[in-house]
């Protein structure tokens, strides 16, 4: 057996110290790397959370914008319906004044001794049944209709006896002339 004698014991101690130093540096490097990795994971997760929050806010804004757009479209269609209704009302209002004017003319040309029994009218046509005291009243009535409302052809008429009085019964259809004024 051979006995080994270490002539330089300080080299062994130096070697053990260097190994310990390398082990400490390695442990510190691993610890530092783990801390860096943890911080990096934390920052990446924060960035992802921030982006998800922004995405949620943007989606909420898009949803709200879609709701506002739907409301605007609904209001636009409601406005169109109201415009159409207003147009109808304006047309009816204009026709009302024409009808009132036509009926005022018609009542002003009816002689005192003529009595309207039935009346049907549109803006273009008036038809009625009437009784007159005599043929002269019928002639005056037809002449007034011709002058103020529109052409009134001489209608067939009958002389009838009512309550002991002779009266003339007649039916007339007059085509109205919208722009015919009083003479």
UniProtKB/TrEMBL annotation:
<keyword id="KW-1133">Transmembrane helix</keyword>
<protein>
    <submittedName>
        <fullName>PilN domain-containing protein</fullName>
    </submittedName>
</protein>
<keyword id="KW-0812">Transmembrane</keyword>
<dbReference type="InterPro" id="IPR052534">
    <property type="entry name" value="Extracell_DNA_Util/SecSys_Comp"/>
</dbReference>
<keyword id="KW-0472">Membrane</keyword>
<feature type="transmembrane region" description="Helical">
    <location>
        <begin position="25"/>
        <end position="44"/>
    </location>
</feature>
């Amino acid at each position: 057996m051979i006995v080994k004698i270490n002539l330089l014991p300080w080299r062994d101690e130096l070697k053990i110290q260097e190994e310990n130093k390398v082990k400490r540096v390695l442990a510190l490097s691993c610890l530092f790397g783990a801390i860096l990795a943890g911080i990096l994971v934390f920052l990446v997760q924060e960035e992802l959370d921030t982006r998800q929050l922004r995405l949620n806010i943007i989606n909420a804004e898009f949803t709200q914008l879609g709701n506002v757009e739907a409301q605007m479209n609904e209001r636009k269609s409601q406005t169109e319906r109201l415009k159409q209704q207003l147009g109808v009302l304006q047309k009816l209002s204009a026709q009302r004044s024409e009808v009132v004017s036509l009926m005022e003319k018609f009542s002003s040309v009816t002689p005192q001794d003529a009595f309207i029994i039935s009346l049907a009218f549109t803006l273009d046509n008036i038809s009625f049944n009437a009784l007159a005291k005599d043929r002269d009243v019928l002639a005056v009535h037809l002449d007034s209709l011709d002058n103020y409302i529109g052409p009134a052809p001489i209608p067939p008429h009958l002389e009838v006896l009512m309550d002991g009085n002779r009266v003339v019964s007649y039916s007339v259809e007059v085509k109205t002339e919208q722009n015919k004024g009083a003479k």
